[in-house]
Write a structure and sequence with these properties.
It is a single chain. The protein has about 270 residues and is of the alpha/beta class. Strand 11 (about 210), helix 8 (about 220-230) and strand 12 (about 230-235) form a beta-alpha-beta unit. The chain folds into two domains: about 10-100 and about 240-270, Rossmann fold; about 105-235, Rossmann fold. It contains ten helices and twelve strands. The strands form two sheets. A six-stranded mixed β-sheet has the order 2-1-3-5-6-4, with helices on both faces. Strands 9-8-7-10-11-12 form a six-stranded parallel β-sheet. The radius of gyration is 18 Å and the shape is globular. The chain has helices at about 20-35, 45-55, 80-85, 105-115, 130-140, 155-165, 200-205, 220-230, 235-250, 260-270, and strands spanning about 10-15, 35-40, 60-65, 80, 90-95, 100, 125, 150, 170, 180-185, 210, 230-235.
Length: about 270
């Protein structure tokens, strides 16, 4: 890796619970491509101050994770359609103090839906109503899915998210029967929720496709249950690799090959 200097470009992530995945992904590629960049993960109790710092210090790129995806919206200058439509941000690019926000989570989920050739006639159940759930529901809607239910504890948030696209919502676990089930909550993530199965086994057994956006670990209880039941599974590891590649291009101007994305993703998880 090049020796850091006053001219080294800094990119960061802001998350309530930082991991090393993004840090290792980006820095692996900076070194391989000989780019004078460095990437560092942070958390904060002052999101407004953190974004002021991004602007004031000339930090080139900022990845935004839970619980800051919605809180940063009033703090940026430009919202691209991918973030404005969803109402959630995961990427900020700083051009000489002008902050442009987008949502590469949406783009990654949309790519995976298309790549996996999921039948749009299948009913979908999405658990969650936060920033990531917004990206997931928007991607399914734009892919042509007409039967989708938002399951969330927060009634107001569930109603608002479902209502945006004419979908249904519930605060109680519905009967099994959705062809596609998606976890868009932190349940199953490393830490206090690591052993929690985000959707019941009956939902898994009734589904054709099991999708968990939790990136770390890749093999969440839901993904393991899906594999054990012989279902088609889509993991958060796939989501984070695709969205990180899009962020990388926005920060550096360099497009990555599929092989580079695969190797960087494998390195990011090899610690």
């Amino acid at each position: 890796m090049p020796i850091l200097s006053k001219d080294t470009t800094l990119c960061i992530s802001l998350s309530g619970r930082p991991s090393n995945i993004g840090t290792r992904f980006h820095n692996f590629l900076y070194e391989e491509l000989g780019l004078d960049f460095v990437y560092k993960a942070f958390t904060t109790g002052d999101i407004e101050g953190a974004i002021r710092g991004v602007r004031a210090l000339g930090i080139r790129g900022c990845s935004v994770s839970m619980p800051f995806k919605e809180a940063v919206i009033p703090l940026v200058d430009v919202l691209e359609d991918s973030a404005a439509t969803i109402g959630a941000v995961n990427t900020i690019v700083n051009d000489d103090g002008r902050l442009t926000a987008s949502n590469t989570d949406y783009q990654a989920v949309a790519t995976l839906i298309a790549r996996c050739d999921i039948d749009t006639a299948r009913p979908v159940l999405v658990r969650g109503s936060g920033g990531m759930a917004k990206a997931v529901v928007a991607a399914f809607h734009h892919a042509g899915f007409v039967d989708l239910t938002v399951l969330a504890r927060n009634e107001a948030a569930a109603r608002a998210l479902a209502g945006t696209y004419g979908y249904t919502w519930t605060t109680e676990q519905p009967p099994p029967g959705a062809g596609v089930i998606v976890n868009a909550t932190p349940l199953g993530m490393s830490g206090p929720y690591a052993d929690v199965l985000s959707l019941p086994g009956a939902q898994v057994r009734a589904a054709d496709v099991v999708f968990d956006v939790v990136a770390f670990p890749a093999d969440t209880p839901l993904i393991r249950a899906g594999r054990t039941s012989g279902k088609q599974v889509i993991s958060g590891a796939q989501v984070i690799a695709l969205q990180a590649a899009e962020q990388f291009e926005r920060y550096t101007g360099v497009s990555l090959t599929p092989d580079q994305v695969t190797r960087a993703s494998e390195f990011a998880r090899a610690e």
